[in-house]
Amino acid sequence: MNGKPIGERLALLTDLYQLTMAACYFDQGMHEEATFSLFIRKYPPHRGYFVAAGLEEALRYLETLRFSEDDLAFLHSTGLFSGKFLDYLQGVRFTGEVFALPEGSIFFKDEPVIEVSAPIIEAQLAETFIINAVSLQTLIASKAARSFHVAQGRPLIDFSLRRTQGPDAGLKVARASYLAGFQGTSNVLAGKLYGLPIFGTMAHSYITSFSREIEAFRVFARIFPGITTLLIDTYDNIQGARKAVQVAKEMEARGERLQYVRLDSGDIAAISKDVRKILDDNGLEYVRILASGGFDEFKMAKVLDAGGKVDSFAVGTKMGVSADAPYFDCAYKLVKYGGRPVMKLSTGKVTLVDKKQIFRRYDETGAMLRDTIALRGEAMPDAAPLLQKVMAGGRLTRDLPTLKDSREYFLSQFALLPESCKALEEPAQYPVDLSPGLQDLQTRVEREIHQRELGES
Amino acid sequence: MNGKPIGERLALLTDLYQLTMAACYFDQGMHEEATFSLFIRKYPPHRGYFVAAGLEEALRYLETLRFSEDDLAFLHSTGLFSGKFLDYLQGVRFTGEVFALPEGSIFFKDEPVIEVSAPIIEAQLAETFIINAVSLQTLIASKAARSFHVAQGRPLIDFSLRRTQGPDAGLKVARASYLAGFQGTSNVLAGKLYGLPIFGTMAHSYITSFSREIEAFRVFARIFPGITTLLIDTYDNIQGARKAVQVAKEMEARGERLQYVRLDSGDIAAISKDVRKILDDNGLEYVRILASGGFDEFKMAKVLDAGGKVDSFAVGTKMGVSADAPYFDCAYKLVKYGGRPVMKLSTGKVTLVDKKQIFRRYDETGAMLRDTIALRGEAMPDAAPLLQKVMAGGRLTRDLPTLKDSREYFLSQFALLPESCKALEEPAQYPVDLSPGLQDLQTRVEREIHQRELGES
Question: Which of A91, A383, B176, B442 is deepest in the core (most CB within 10 A)?
Fold first, then answer.
């Protein structure tokens, strides 16, 4: 956000074990290439797809990763590390290669979102930050896409900042929800940093600080005639709507137009119909209704199914923390080291070995049909490879797309996802299979490990 | 974290409406004192208390709040604000008074955690950040306290960093969980910034990068003999335990002691008993068992109830995002403006008016008995006032306690909370009532608003 580049600022934002393991690799002279694969193991309830986001942050981190004098002094103070290792750490930079899904991509469980190949210390040190960055933005984009789907073109605004899990999450939520189809955010700093459209209304405190509600309305309309949204539920929605009508008429007399009234409590479906009628009966068909207050895709669907007359939704907390699924089972697993495909066998947790590629097939209408996870080197005719090489030798191999471009990409891809996979509850499971090459290797590696580590034959 | 102070760095981390409302107040010459009250409206399911945290961050923000030239240039670029208002904003500082619960306090729904009194623009601008800061750390401390309660003295370590909602949340989670009784964290930067004890083990990737598991164990034990925790489930817990025994014996021969073995998957209650037996049968009674993998207070209780032989728990994602309750219904409401107590009437959302105090009574054993929310000026004999004046004239009125002191304070207070209120499911509801003075004022204000705004008599 300011000052030092992110990779330097956050080099210590890692788990201690990344550093102790690095010390072991260093001691053993283990500097061969390791490939780590980032993927999500399973869907939360009622989910059937993910939206990739957070790649740019991860790559900026890798580009600038370095330990400052101050970081090294802290590590020295722990008494855990040898001077020789800390000297080595001072020179560490990320020099590896990254394959990744572009931000805005639709992907599915077990599919690699990012594969990092680098000398093992470099790839291992980056684990904690990369998971953190990619899983948060992917979490939010995946949640926001559901609201976008339900809203059917109605503008959605991110109002979540006050209840996101920290200031940084507030920024990332604004970014990721915009990526996934939102129109903008109330978050001013996000507007500044990411160039997002910013929107605002007024608070109940604003209304109650005036001795009369209508005075609060009048003052705002006079100062911000181009962007006035009147919050009408402070005392009573219906009486509030009548006062809004009065102020809208006063605005008309000045050649201005009230933009929105905002409903924030009560039975929104019913109230919005009453308010719509009051507006229309007064010739204010052009005044739109914004609804807020605990909205997520479920509440939005309910209000719209009940015929609610809502033109735009402010979506807050439940999207901003992905309330029904506040984390993904996102893993970053070693799949290859020194040319040797590897996996762990821990109960119930399978990792797909080696460097991979995802191939996607489309039907004759252009809709997504089926994905195949394959070995990186495999070719699949009539299928599009999804992972792109975005970094080599620690440097970006191409300019990153703008956020607007990534949003366009999301919109184009989301349109190709079958409707049945977008259902809010019990969505259809999009078919993903493994290539014969990957299946064979997977079986062979598993058998070898059983023989080697468990003495089975 | 670096560079500019937080209030300057994050002045724009606010909702746009805070700035448009401020412009209205400015235009109207509304600079009278406003009091905002921060409180939580209701308990999430199965909750019956909260642990206050995040105050220090909120106060540091208030102390240093100012708009930079760059911020003002951005606001100017939106075309929304007059030059006169932006000039005014440049000089804005927080000059108000803050009453607050010390960090580590136990509190209940509807009780004010913080009350901010300042010229309305200053108090309003701070809303978004203060809610964000206090609600995140309070969320995490309240969640972590439940694990602390269940663990009954077993050390708990925060392992959540990779899946917290952003890097900043990762830091705050480490801080807030330590405050609520955790022993430390895996988060190295949190260790540096907050002086927390840091802990680490090893990853499956570390094991799989070696051609044999036992070699991975040996290398680590040789380099970090004082802090070795062997992760034994990569291929098979039992075989892993046997290899750990072998390495522990090798360590003994060098006069060293293996600290822990770590279980990370499978039926932890059953496996821990088997592993305990293997260790004990080999004279390794001193080697402790650390369990990780999806732990929260519920899973911990289940494993301990089933007789699991676990000495320490690493608690990750579910605590780090407060998975069962990923947000609190935390509000910052205007309760007084220009000497006039105010409230909104919006459906189902009641705000307690005016400046307040919380009084707490204890029984003869010292246990917490009952709280009363009263007007700030009221006196209650035999009851302790909980809100402290921590800021006046925009400056701290006292040194903030150290994090360690706040942790001690939490431990002392938590010990006084009745056990029935700590139950993991359906906890007893701690009694909180309103003083007669507050009740009377509440009724009177509500009646006046009905008359004024709704034309009722």
Answer: B176
